[in-house]
Amino acid sequence: MEQYKRKGKVTKITRLFSIMLMAVMLTSCLGMTTVAKDTKKDGQEKVSRVLKVAFAETPGISETDEYGNRTGLMVDFLNEIAKYTDWKYDYIDTDAEFMTDEFLNGEYDLMGGVFYSQELEEYFAYPKYRIGSSRGILLCRSEDPDIKSYELTSLNGKTIGVYDRAKTKIEYLKEFLSKNNLDCTIKYYSHDDMGESENLYQQLRSGEVDMLMGNDSDKEDDFRVVTSFSAQPYYLVTQVYEQDILDELNAALEAIMDADPEYAENEYEENFPDVKNADIQLTEKEESYLKEKGEITVAMVSDWHPFYCVDDLDDEHEGLLPDMFDRMSEYLGIPFTYVFADTYEDAIKKVNEGEADILGAYLDSDEHAFNAGLALTKPFINLNSIIIKNKSVNYPESGMTGGIIEGRAMPGDIQTEEIKYFSSTEEGMKAVNDGTIDFFYGISANLDKEMQNHHFANVVPVTRVNNKTKVSFALARPIDKTLFGIMNKAISTIPSKEMNTMLDKSLVSMGYTRASFSELVYANPVAFVLILCGFLVLILLGVLIAVRAKVKNTLMQGELERAEAKSRAKSEFLSKMSHEIRTPMNAIIGLSDMVGMKEDIPDSVKVILEKIRASSRYLLSLINDILDMSKIENGKMEIESEPFSMKNMADELIQMIETQAEMKGIHFRAKIELQHEIIVGDAIRIRQVLLNLLSNAVKFTQPGGNILFKIEERRFDGEKVVLAFEVQDSGIGIAEENQEKIFRTFEQVGNNMTKSEGTGLGLPISSHIVDLMGGSLQVESRIDEGSKFFFALSLPVGTVSKEGIQESQSQDTSLEEADFSGMRILLAEDNDLNAEIAKELLEIRGAKVDRAADGQEAVEMFEQSKAGWYQAILMDIRMPRKDGLQAAREIRSGAHPDGKNIPIAAMTANTFKEDVEAAREAGMTAFIPKPVDMEYLWKVLHAQVQKE
Question: What is the pTM (predicted TM-score) of this model?
Answer without folding.
Answer: 0.44
